[in-house]
Amino acid sequence: MDANNVLEIRGLNVEFASERGRLRALRDVDLTIPRGSIVGVVGESGCGKSTMINSIIGLLAHNATVSSGSISFQGEDLLQKSERELRDIRGQHISMIFQDPMTTLNPVLSIGTQMIDIQYRDQIPKAQKKARSIEMLSRVGIPDPESRLDNYPHQFSGGMRQRIAIAMALQAEPELLIADEPTTALDATLEVQIIHRLKDLQHSMGCSILFISHHLGVIAELCDFVIVMYGGEVVERGTVRDIFHRPSHPYTFKLLECDPARIAETTRSLPTIPGEIPNLAKLPPGCIFADRCERSIGLCREKIPPSTEFAEHHWARCHLAGEVSST
Fold first, then answer.
1. Residues 267-300, buried b or exposed e (16+ Cβ, 10 A)?
2. What is the C-alpha separation between 171 and 100, in angstroms, rounded?
3. Which residues, at least 6 apart from 169, have a Cβ–Cβ distance to it below 8 Å?
4. Rounded-to-integer distance, Cα 301 and Cα 160, Å
5. At 147, is the pLDDT very low, low, confident or very high (cuts 50, 70, 90)?
6. Taking a C-beta distance cutoff of 8 angstroms, is the pair 39, 58 a contact?
7. Residue 132 to residues 24, 171, 300, Cα–Cα distance (Å)
8. Which of 41, 62, 112, 181 is the most exposed place for a label (fewest CB within 10 A)?
9. What is 57-123 written as a DSSP string?
């Protein structure tokens, strides 16, 4: 593992046992998170984003199996860790911000109680834990944090609850923060505030962030690198500039076309990608996107394309890599 990276996923394959047969949810997934960077992951629902996250933190469902691959964090393979060892890593070294803060925060405990309780690993006085909690609430922009420690989650707005969730995740100063669509439930104004706050905290604390989102504008604003997933595969990865200005995979190109922010004229119908995500229990023999791709050729339906680096730090899983252009 490269010492400049905090996390490296190589050749990750995850399968689920189901009544329809074996679902190949992730196939040969590669992902790298450099230290101090923000890596965004985008893709349609069902593309494998949540499965990848749960593989990292060791919270896959009971019917899931990691058939092959490695997940190296700080030079150690998380897939080889025991449940006890993973518990020591989760929260302290890898923290998580979930999509809905109301399901993250306990509704019957005060914010202060929850923030102090999650510091159970630290052998320091309770007064010091309380002071640390107040400081973190202040850093995420909660006004008068000392008096608000006694408040319960329902006494905060949605944006404030999400800020509290961020404060709790960052309180242990983790090396890696995983944010699973943390702004989906917020309005546009609060979304911008949360994004800027998260970026400021990342710069000041120096942690790396894996940011999952459907919102392409948020990814473009926040991230340094972007991973594009489709049907359980990473179909393209590169810098945020490459992905948004020089997309190479046809799926990435179509995904950007569907961004409402790019629609120049008023219309009653939003752009969509024709077709459906393939059945993961019965995968096609060639490219996973071939049936929905306007540029597919005979080879696409016969052979799985390799992941090709056609420009520096810009990879695509496509037989025509480098030929797709937004111009």
1. eeeeeebeeebbebeebbebbbbbbbbeebeeeb
2. 19
3. 95, 96, 97, 177
4. 49
5. very high
6. no
7. 44, 8, 55
8. 62
9. HT---TTEEEEEEEEEETTEEGGGS-HHHHHHHBTTTEEEE-S-HHHHS-TTS-HHHHHHHTTTTS-
Mean pLDDT of 198-219: 89
User: Half-sphere exposure (CA, 13 Å, Cβ side) for 204?
Assistant: 10
Among 306, 278, 308, residue whose Cα is nearest residue 290: 278
Q: How far apart are the first and last CA of the chain?
A: 37
- The DSSP code for 301 is G
Query: Does pLDDT of 325 surpass 70?
Result: no
Residue spans per domain, the chain: 5-93+172-317
CA dihedral 2→53→246→200, nearest 10 degrees, is -80
Residue 259's pLDDT is 80
Q: For 222-236, what is each residue's pLDDT tens digit?
A: 999 999 999 999 999
CATH homologous superfamily of 5-93+172-317 equals P-loop containing nucleotide triphosphate hydrolases (3.40.50.300)
- Please tell me the distance from the alpha carbon of residue 213 to that of residue 34, in angstroms, as a whole number: 19
Tokens 């518990």, residue located:
87
Q: How far apart are CA 255 and CA 19, in angstroms?
A: 31
Identify whether the C-beta of residue 287 lies closer than 8 Å to the C-beta of residue 301. yes
Identify the weakest region by mean pLDDT among 33-42, 88-97, 259-268: 259-268
User: DSSP code of 38?
Assistant: E
- β-sheet with 94-97: strand ranges across: 94-97, 176-180, 208-212, 38-42, 225-230, 233-239, 314-317, 307-311
Total residue length of the chain: 327
Percent of the chain scoring above 70 in pLDDT: 98
Tell me: pLDDT of 270 over 90: no
Rg (CA), the chain: 21
